[in-house]
Amino acid sequence: MAFRTTAVVCSSLKKWAYNLSGFNKYGLLRDDCLYENEDVQEALRRLPAHVVDERNFRIIRAVQLSLQKTILPKEEWTKYEEDKLYLTPIVEQVKKERLEREEWEKNY
Q1: Does the keyword Kinase apply (predicted)?
Q2: How many CB atoms neighbour CB 38 within 10 A?
Q3: 35-59 pLDDT, tens digit each
Q4: Please, which contacts does 43-51 make with residues 24 or more away whose CB atoms are closer than 8 Å?
């Protein structure tokens, strides 16, 4: 019983923090906000072109809304349940490959 209550509270807290972050009011996904270091750039290169185009559209729209000092209508906000991590798994794979390559170069 306590575990179930804790899970509900944890889920509610995650949704609250997600909505408080503010990027969803511009229609952005969590992975749209990643800092573009070398690993993220490599992961973006591996994505299909249409996914990169969708990401670029969301970012450009968010910048435009920010410059206009406005946000999207509430029905167009990204919802917590709809936000999917499309880039994070690829970034983790790229990091793993990079670390493996660095380890290989160091030892051999």
Answers
A1: no
A2: 10
A3: 999 999 999 999 999 999 999 999 9
A4: 43/87, 43/90, 43/91, 43/93, 43/94, 44/87, 46/90, 46/94, 47/86, 47/87, 47/90, 51/86
Identity of the residue numbered 92: E
Over the stretch 75-89, which tens digit does the pLDDT of each residue have? 999 999 999 999 999
- By C-alpha distance, which of 25, 20, 15, 28 is closest to 81? 15
Distance, in Å, from the CA atom of 31 to the CA atom of 58, rounded to the nearest integer, reads 11
Q: Give the closest residue to 21 by CA, choosing from 11, 35, 33, 10.
A: 33
Q: Please, what is the Cα angle at 70 between 37 and 58, to 5 degrees? A: 40
- Burial of residue 54 (CB within 10 Å: 0-12, 13-18, 19+) is middle
